[in-house]
Amino acid sequence: MKQMNNFIFLLIALFLVGCASTGSYTYSGSTIETPYSKASDAYYKSNYEEAIEYFNQYIDESEEDDVLMDMALFNLANSYKGIGNKDKAIETYEKVIDKFKEGYWVDSAKEEIEKLKD
Q1: For residue 76, which phi and psi values (nearest 5 degrees)?
Q2: Percent of the chain with pLDDT over 90
Q3: pLDDT of residue 13
Q4: 3-class SS at 25?
Q5: d(CA 96, CA 93)
Q6: Where are the domains of the chain?
Q7: How many other C-beta atoms can be found within 10 angstroms of the C-beta atom of residue 94?
Q8: Using CA atoms, how far apart are residues 60 and 7, in angstroms rounded to an integer?
Q9: Which residue has the higher pLDDT, 13 or 102?
Q10: By the 8 A CB rule, do 79 and 48 touch?
């Protein structure tokens, strides 16, 4: 029975990881996409211009305390870096630092700023 429970848990975990990686899911035969899922999809395909558009839309439409806001801002900054807009990237990394003060994305933003200033 324990092996069956572990197997079911593994299947559920894999399903959730798949949903999280694309940011979209299918319900009743239709795929629901959000600005965040569109931004993430574009970002991971290196379509930075499109990612910037959708990350900005997501940020504008979301609540200030949205759980994905720090990652959205960080990936927005990475997208600016991806198109070569160093100043906008630094400005956006600084927003991550100012808004969230601490955590993984803040530490990563500080590292990215240092790399861009070298």
Answers
A1: -65, -45
A2: 66
A3: 53
A4: strand
A5: 5
A6: 1-32, 34-117
A7: 15
A8: 41
A9: 102
A10: yes
Give residue-wise pLDDT tens across range 75-105: 999 999 999 999 999 999 999 999 999 999 9
Looking up tokens 């600084």, which residue turns up? 94
CB-based burial of residue 87 (10 Å sphere; 0-12 exposed, 13-18 middle, 19+ buried)? Answer: exposed
Q: Tell me the HSE value of 58 on the side-chain side, using a 13 A CA sphere.
A: 27
Q: What is the pLDDT of residue 56?
A: 97
Strands (E) across the chain are located at 25-27, 30-32
What's the pLDDT score for residue 64? 76
Q: Which residue has the tokens 């979301």?
A: 62
Who has greater pLDDT, 66 or 59?
Answer: 59
**How far is it, in rounded angstroms, from Cα 53 to Cα 4?**
44
Task: Pick the closest to residue 81 from 72, 92, 70 (CA basis).
Answer: 92
Indicate the class that CATH gives domain 34-117. mainly alpha
d(CA 72, CA 54): 10
Which residue type occupies 58?
Y
Two structure tokens written together for 8: 């079911």
